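A favour, since you know our structure tokens better than I do. Could you add the entry underneath, on a fresh line?
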Amino acid sequence: CAFSVAQRAEEYGELATLPSAVKDRLLQMMTSKGKVSDSTLRQLVHPGTRTLDLQNCDVSDAGLQQMNCVQLRTALLRGCTKITGAGLQVLASRCPFLQVLDLSGCVAVSDAAIQALARHCTALQVVSLRGCTALSDVALLALGQSCRNLHSIYFSETQVLYIQGNKET
């Protein structure tokens, strides 16, 4: 039954009234098929959502800006190419307990967005910025200075050449 709903979620009216556990299961099923859009995200994500796996889904800033996931701990946004710094800044301000973030391939992510994440999400432990070509050393410095629990950061395929302040002279 849940699989059937997940396959045809866009055809159903209001999913927001479903119990949180059902919404979590539907979201998991839909993301595994890459079937999540901004509208389904708005209906299925709730304040108690702890994990959000939107890898390669058709989600944009509009979807992120509608979310209010105070309990969110993990956000996997790999390959969500419509997400920009504006959406991430809103996500950062609404998800203060975020610990794991994968932005691999999100080419429109800016230094300002990563600085907002560092400022608001100080519990970050793992961050992947692979292929985020618009970033510079400013983003990495902000994470390093603000996120004391950070133990892994991946930034291959970025434009970061050196860390300002740690450059050899």
About this structure: Helices lie at 2-7, 20-32, 38-44, 61-65, 85-94, 111-120, 137-146. The chain has a mean pLDDT of 87. The first strand starts at residue 51 and ends at 53.
